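TL;DR need structure tokens for one chain.
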Amino acid sequence: MLSVYMRLKYPNIVAGALAASAPILSTAGIGDSRQFFHDVTADFESSAPACRDAVRGAFQQLKELAEQQDYSRIQEKFSLCKPPSSPEDVHQLNGLLRNAFTIMAMLDYPYSTHFMGNLPANPVKVQSKQKTQMKKL
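>> reply
TL;DR here they are.
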């Protein structure tokens, strides 16, 4: 992303830029703003098709519990230290969960990484396996 921003901001200095996997079009407001998240979903789906539905179901449950303002149940289901106290708290939780999946997809390398937290090799596959095993319990 930074290379493209550099090229856009300083076209007289930067002759070209490469961005290997950055969501440039959606960030610039040109492409589908949801494409990045479609790609994240596809990454998890390719690892375990059942994972996509399980994760979508969990986000739907969070939404329904939030609409009912059942904050104690949200605390219980997500093992939170204290229950959310407002729709804004639930919105923050939703964002944190979304970002966790996004980071796993972006750092889905065949080796462990430690520069944005400690992630195992192939974190999408690891998470998908755990999610599908939990569903069997």
